[in-house]
Amino acid sequence: MNTKKLIFAALLMIASSANAQKYVGGDISNLTSNEALNPTYYDFDGKECPALDLYKQQGLNAMRVRIHVNPSDFPNNDPNVCQDLEYVKALGKRIKDAGFKLMLDFHYSDTWADPEKQWTPKAWESLSDNELYTKIYEYTKDVLQQMKDAGAEPELIQTGNEISYGMLWGKATDAESSLKKCYMGKEANWSRFTTLLKNAGKACREVCPNAKIILHTERATQTNVLTNFYDRMKTDGVDYDIIGLSYYPIWHNTVSTLETAIKTLESKYADKDIMIVETGAAYSWLPGDKDYTPVYAATEAGQKQFIDAVIDMLKSHDKVTGLFWWWMDYNPYPYNTTHMDGWWYAPLYDGNTGKPLAALSSLKDFLGEESGIHGIEADASIAPANNVWTTLSGIRTSKPTRAGLYIHNGKKVVVR
Fold first, then answer.
1. CA distance 156 to 62
2. Nearest to 120 by CA among 166, 82, 81
3. Which of 1, 73, 274, 358 is deepest in the core (most CB within 10 A)?
4. Cβ-count burial 145-165 (b if 16+ within 10 Å, e if not)
């Protein structure tokens, strides 16, 4: 094979790896339950338009749905926690039939799972750790098989939700000292936790071998906690593909704080992709319990400025392959426009009009217009000089004469 062919083959291989699949969309776990209240969804022109249809029109390509073990088993549970297996199978099939990829978010709890609560499902409370290892494997495998059988196979799977401090801690009524939490600087419960994750991941690989496994944390403001977590995963041999992060400015500081976390993760875990699996910012008001001065105003314009800033930053990080807005489908119009307690303040619909907010139109920008090749360093031996363009076959030209992939000033550039 001659030199030119070798260069061409090498560049194609680099281009292929650089052009990683990107996903953008949102968590729409409550879409079905919200629709049951008969809201009216509009498009940007004020015409009635189902949410999934609008998301497709806006260029989004993936949706996220959480699943709880048995929501009815948790006392006084939030009515928004209704995502049992039957609910999720039906919503998942709708998502797949509409042409989206599906991210399935296992909460491994009967209620919300997050850094402050990872309660063991009631039906699992009496199980020993060894029995839990088997149960999480069997449960994960059964859910995924039923999803496949229902036409709702996920392409992305979270084995746990915001699990920075472990999961399946015990009962909500247990004493703090007896809960099986994982903390930085302590050895307690980490082996138990990673064994749970390995068994969940095993089920994912067996049933959905082409799906990517995500481990989801939310300590964007504490890079030492993040690196401790993912170092533990590596040391204990936990099988996964993607680092998942939550980022909300009301809790996680500025966009530059998120970028610091991303740079740290990119450097330490170069073999892993990164996704922002949850984000969101207010468009109308802020919760009264937060002493917080937003960088971006709680207005429609401020909300759009926020996501535009996030996307602009993420474009500099090729390892970030996903961006999901949390509960973007919440729309109380016209059944409840009071904006009082319990109303989610950061959706992508205006609760007073049922129309989408401007930030929704920005999300697709995360995918970019280029293939991801621009900006990757080319082989210095073939880098052109004096602003000369070079085709992949080695022919120099003063400017591109047709669409294609070129070398320009030492970088590969797509010309359309």
1. 10
2. 166
3. 274
4. eebeebebbbbbbbbbbbbbb
User: Running DSSP on this structure, what letter comes out for residue 155?
Assistant: S
DSSP annotation string for 211-250: SEEEEEE--TT-HHHHHHHHHHHHHTT---SEEEEEE-HH
Instruction: Assign residue 179 a region (left: φ > 0; alpha: ψ between -120 and 50; beta: otherwise).
Output: beta
Pairing state of beta strands 404-408 and 389-391? antiparallel
What pLDDT sits at residue 4? 45
| Alpha-carbon Rg for the chain in angstroms | 23
Residues listed for the chain: 416
Please list, in sequence order, all residues whose beta carbon lies within 8 angstroms of the beta carbon of residue 123, skipping any fewer than 6 positions away: 69, 70, 73
CA atoms within 13 A on the CB side of 337: 11
Cis omega (within 30 of 0) for bond into 39:
no
Q: Residue 61: which residues within 8 A CB-CB, separation 6 or more?
A: 23, 24, 25, 100, 101, 367
Q: 174: which 2 tokens?
A: 């247990």
Compute the mean pLDDT over every residue in the chain, rounded to the nearest whole number. 88
Mean pLDDT of 3-16: 42
Please state the pTM of the whole predicted model.
Answer: 0.85
